[in-house]
Amino acid sequence: MGAGILSGLRIVEISAFIAAPLGGATLAAMGADVIRVDPPGGGVDIGRWPLHRGRSLYWAGLNQGKRSVTIDMRHELGQEKVARLITAPGDGGGIFLTNLPVSGWNSYDELKKLRRDLVMVVVTGNRDGSAAVDYTVNAALGFPFITGPEDAVGPLNHVLPAWDAMTGFLAATAILAAERHRRITGDGQLVELSLSDVGLAVAGHLGLIGEAVLEEQPRGRFGNHVYGTFGRDFVTRDGRRVMVLALTPRQWRSLVEATGLSGEFRNLEARLGLYFNNEGDRWRGRQEISDRLQEWIALRNLSSVAAAFDAERVLWGPYQTFKELVAEDPRASAANPLFADVEHPGLGTYPTPGSPLRFGAADPVPPRPAPRLGEHTDEVLREFDL
Amino acid sequence: MGAGILSGLRIVEISAFIAAPLGGATLAAMGADVIRVDPPGGGVDIGRWPLHRGRSLYWAGLNQGKRSVTIDMRHELGQEKVARLITAPGDGGGIFLTNLPVSGWNSYDELKKLRRDLVMVVVTGNRDGSAAVDYTVNAALGFPFITGPEDAVGPLNHVLPAWDAMTGFLAATAILAAERHRRITGDGQLVELSLSDVGLAVAGHLGLIGEAVLEEQPRGRFGNHVYGTFGRDFVTRDGRRVMVLALTPRQWRSLVEATGLSGEFRNLEARLGLYFNNEGDRWRGRQEISDRLQEWIALRNLSSVAAAFDAERVLWGPYQTFKELVAEDPRASAANPLFADVEHPGLGTYPTPGSPLRFGAADPVPPRPAPRLGEHTDEVLREFDL
User: Fold this and answer.
1) Residue B1 — very low, low, confident or very high, per pLDDT cuts 50/70/90?
2) Which of A47, A74, A287, B89 is most buried as measured by Cβ atoms within 10 A of its Cβ?
3) Nearest CA to B122 among B95, B92, B140?
4) How far is A204 from chain B (nearest CA, A)?
């Protein structure tokens, strides 16, 4: 399939929704040949929102750069074809990624009979195979009770399907680790991961499980304040919002310099008995710091805030709606080499990302649209003599 | 360093905060020897919250299973030692991961002189090297304006540093892809990725950039409703919260069966002119569906809701605070093989995750604590003759 650091790898994907499809799209954007197999008419995610003119922008995004094959897998003939496709010979082949239930014909044990060095990565909801999705994992993890305004009641879901996306990227990691092992030893293997384990591992790495065990009163809900240091949103004179942070002493000095509020902040430190070079003290004084800073920012338009902050290397950024993002931010346009303006059949033309990974030793893979459902069925059946 | 699918790989990490450290911890949990180098006294993240008894649970979580070396890199002697450590010989060595500024002695061009096949992965804020962190990337991407209650005003940050975590996992993917390339061709390379590109790519894959370009009115803020289908939080009689979803027709039937509300929902469909087997129609009728369902759930305690839902395979899950998670959920305890009760020196003992990836062909790496800062300085200096 041409350019890309993973040129020569071939992955067969049977999947739905986000985690496995994003894992496959990530590898496709690095040059792997990713063949997604769906039932005729498409899987359960074929019409997933957001839509445009009734067609799924979600499906188009999560299947970029793949080949699409439709085969009826309810019957033995179709199952046999897909099993032979998954286990077709070739150095970079014999890799199967799925987040749909596997049993019988598409189990590791059955497929291994057709290709002994098969690498198979199975994404489940829970480790025991029971159902869980991004939303139930997030509910269980505690984040909805610490997200949102301090006076909010009840859980507040974030909209970003973060656990799905992380699981997708980890599935890509898993495939490369198992393929490395195969390259060294000749052996394939089954790799399993679950959405809830990914969420739990991340909560653990962030210290939140330790905090909940060791602290009588773990962290609460603090609105847009960044826990344990200084960071928050502010409103400019022209009604725009900005996120302003001082995570390090250098960034705090920048903020003080840019605003010229050193006298005010020194008085505040004296009055509160705090020393704002310490992150904990910036946290303890966050409300007072924010009050001063909001006064300063409220007197200025976004453009003057930006100029003052950038001159002193303040860590900050404007809030943008998705509309503002695509209208105003060059990072979300073809001015950023991450993107190209790609025409998606039946949808339209819009900036479409390639891989965010830039490999010095390999040509990048130009961003490509998703296939039409079943677009490559004949081609793939012929190519693999099925 | 023993067990693990990546046993034999060695990564030197110069890092702070989340993205690169999580990338390193991910590889360490898979058996790689990850050596994190910090200045004496620690880097800017050594005291990052959450804390316990003044010590960072965050640092302990993000550096699990690594070796820690402290060297003063402000002076030439220290720089030379670290450069030699990064470029030390060995098949699995010569891999450098960083999210701190590189220039001069630790630039790719300089280090490559010491080891021609160096793999170096550099995480930046923006692609052009300018500063951006999870919070500013999130602000720019549009999510804070679609997160939170429908009547919320202004942006609402989610608390989970999702972009950081995704970037960490992608950095792990990048290292394995570049190491594969080196194994095949003998060539090393520089790999770059930026937090903002990762965020933009994910927003693109989810269809949100396409939606913002093509739709006059892209999706708004819908509280805890799951966009374009049915999913929301509900309150049980005993005051617990549950997340309930019907993403597929099968899941919708399960919900109808479990609640015995088929008559009510049929009437509702007739009255509204909707057909709830279609996800779009479940979305259009979400308020009315939720009203019926809330009545049903409000009459039952969590335990009876759970029994009724599980019997019919409804897609649902309880909300839990972090305290409830560690107290009640076996998935967040050593009953889940993901975790072991690990003693973290100076902090205490708590369930500590290993890799969420389970490789059939390799022994798992038992969860390990983070090192004490500088714990392996002498050992590493000796081992690499520095």
Assistant:
1) very low
2) A47
3) B95
4) 6
Are the C-beta atoms of B165 and A166 separated by less than 8 Å?
yes
- A150 CB burial (10 A radius; 0-12, 13-18, 19+): exposed
B210 contacts in chain A (CB < 8 Å): 50, 52, 57, 60-61, 344, 347-348, 350, 352
pTM of the model: 0.98
Residues 6+ apart with CB under 8 A from B80: B105
φ and ψ of A349, to 5 deg: -110, 130
Asked whether residue A1 carries a pLDDT value surpassing 60, the answer given is: no
Q: How far is B316 from chain A (nearest CA, A)?
A: 6
How high is the ipTM of this complex? Answer: 0.98
C-alpha distances out from residue A281 to A216, A221, A247, A386, B46, Å = 21, 18, 12, 67, 15
Which residue do the tokens 């509020």 mark? A261
Name the token pair of B31: 């058996």
- Is-contact A316 A244, C-beta < 8 A? yes
Q: What is the DSSP string of A97-135?
A: EE-S---GGGSHHHHHHH-TT-EEEEEESSTTS----HH
Averaged pLDDT for residues B97-120: 97
User: How far away is chain B from the Cα of A27, in angstroms, using its nearest Cα?
Assistant: 9
Segment B125-145 shows an average pLDDT of 97
User: What's the rounded Cα separation, in Å, for the pair B140 and B212?
Assistant: 14
The answer to whether residues B230 and B286 touch, using CB atoms and an 8 Å cutoff, is yes
Please list every residue in chain A whose beta carbon sits closer than 8 Å to the beta carbon of residue B228: 48-51
Report the distance separating Cα A21 and Cα B365, nearest Å: 28
Chain B residue numbers with beta carbons less than 8 Å from the beta carbon of A193 are 356-358
pLDDT mean over B331-343: 98
Helices (H) and strands (E) in chain B, counts: 15, 14
Q: Which residues contact A5 (CB under 8 A, 6 or more apart)?
A: A30, A31, A357, A359, A361, A362, B177, B178, B180, B181
Q: How far apart are CA B96 and CA B20, in angstroms?
A: 10
DSSP-H helix ranges across B102-192: 108-114, 134-141, 162-185
Does B38 qualify as catalytic in the annotation? no
Return d(Cα B52, Cα B46) in angstroms, integer.
Answer: 13
HSE, CB side, 13 Å, CA atoms: give it for residue B320. 22
Question: What's chain B's Rg over C-alpha atoms?
Answer: 25
Chain A residues within an 8 Å CB radius of B279: 47-49
Is 70 exceeded by the pLDDT of residue B2? no
Tokens read off for B25: 């911890």
Pairwise CA distance, residues A205 & A4, whole Å: 32
Nearest by CB: B177 against A5, A52, A108: A5
Q: Between chains, do A205 and B353 touch, taking CB under 8 Å as contact? A: yes
